[in-house]
Task: structure prediction
Amino acid sequence: MFRPKLLFTSLAAIALAACSPQDPQAVTSAAIAKQVILPTYSRWVEADRQLAVSALAYCQGKENLETARADFLHAQKAWAELQPLLIGPLAEGNRSWQVQFWPDKKNLVGRQVEQLVVAQPQIDAAALTKSSVVVQGLSAYEYILFDSNINLADDSQKARYCPLLTAIGERQKQLAEEILASWNSTDGMLAQMSKFPNQRYADSHEAIADVLRVQVTALDTLKKKLGTPMGRQSKGIPQPFQADAWRSESSLKSLAASLSAAQSVWAGVDNKGLRSLLPAEQKPLADKIDAAYAASLKLFNDNQRTLNELLADDAGRTQLNAIYDSLNVVHRLHEGELAKALGVQLGFNANDGD
Amino acid sequence: MMRRQALKLGGLLLSAVTLGGWSLFKQKDRSPLLLSARDDVDGNHFAVGYRLDGTRVFSTQVGQRCHDIINHPTLPIALFVARRPGTESYLINLADGQLLQTLTSLPNRHFYGHAVIHKDGEWLYTTENDTTDPGRGLLGVYRFEGERLIHSGEIPTHGVGPHQVSWMPDGETLVVANGGIRTEAESRVEMNLNAMEPSLVLMQRDGTLLSKETLSQQMNSVRHLGIASDGTILACQQFMGDAHELSELLAIKRPGQPFEPFPVAEPQLRAMGHYTASVAVHSELRLVALTAPRGNRFFVWDLDSGALRLDAPLPDCAGVGAVKDGFVVTSGQGRCRFYDCRQSDLNAKPLDLPSGLWDNHLHVM
Result:
């Protein structure tokens, strides 16, 4: 009944393995952090810097609405690409809501923006930081630029929303810069995903487990972002206003950007992604996951219609079902076979606690 | 080999002279014993005991998933309590993991995951659901006859959907966290989210109500408890309201004071994802620790000043318990940690225990 402690499982042995350059999990974790995650965060910072400039230029009459909308879509895409990379500070403390508020079942975004432009007509970024998370991010920005009840061609309406639009642009830029700075700081996320043990990860396996957990959560969220407007949670009755980025009709483009980023974590740069951790005998699984990503991305790329257009007819709904099913295959492969092959236990207290 | 023989000898002594053996079992130079429910990768359920130095004492497969664990004050046995809506709790011999008794709930009753044993070692009280009146909170009363439990009666918890039950330091007064949620037999689906009735109840062992208090938010389910040696009660909550709202997920009742929110700052409240798993109090270091597995976050505050001492990432952390110099925390996903809390900077040390699959609560003795 009693087993002598196995000495080679001691902390020292694990620490030794983790420090060794041969530790494949440490190599992979560091590579994903440096070659996939960090460049994507940097692109997000650049997009938000452009957003801040764009809001100001638009409000000063130096830029037209089409350009302002294009800059928003660029920032929205950069944010969508971060979804499978929400590991560390941006995933903590509900910070992601400060960028995008979804799901928004009760149209809190619209209601709270309308309240805020009355209550604080000259709001700036500092004051916005103290406001509800609902109005701090891209969802509120999108509402102002795209909602059909707002006519920005009318100068008085434009003047009403411009202080908030400018404040959001500035706030998003600051937030993105803060997050990137914390990634690069001493003992920041980049260091914690590269050198083990540290105060976040006891060993490199914990870092890989965290990367996979974030992937699985993101893939599940993509299914929800598509399934909810399709009516999968509402007895088949479509809920187009429950989609994310529905006002700018960029839902499907956002989903495709997120999926593509997830694929880059899987494949990695120079084949240093999660796939590189699978032993040779797991090649059939690796091939299956490669094929699942390719199939799903092809369905997204082949489609030129918006979510609303697809929801409107039978052929479109069939196409959406096919996209949903393809996402589901990717998600299930990560959650099941890949997690098992990598020896990762996805948390069960969080999902099924008491 | 020496250790194995020594432990066998210990086991023999335990069965020969129970009380003497028990004090031997708990001898001071041994690493503390951690008891928990744990799964394997295939989803089978186990009742496990490990020394904090990593030595496995037992791992006994059981039929139903367990939740909290409570040890007998004088015998080397512990009850692994069924997780709601489980109907089987398991009385386990701590020396070798032998299943001594499967305690089955009465018809129209199920366990809620928590229990206490009276200091004299004769009576056990478990939180139970009356499924003929879903959510009506009961304490099942059981009496020890040797190493067996016999159902002896039940008393009301004066609330709905009771969860954790604890002793006040007098060992006579019971504290009950009534979660406020009605659920049916064999179900975890909430029936009354718009009419929840959570409460914190103090009562006597004969069922007499001493006090019943509530927090301001009706959808804030009071679930888990930590009691300091001076009688300070800590309660942690799970909020069933809208995702963007703020909720009072940690609350305190100091001796003679009302039940009120503990002063947790907004960034920490936001980080919890409206869900806490366990709370533990360190009476000597005057600290309170809290796990938030949905937020993947572990927190420690100073009990008296309310100052935040630690806000650390820890994936799927759930079980937490006070040990000599700090807290031990388990995780459903990663390695277990010991947090040394003696210095101003709290440091995490990974423990040499199996990684992941640790269930909601731990019990250290």
Remarks:
- Chain A has 15 helices and no strands.
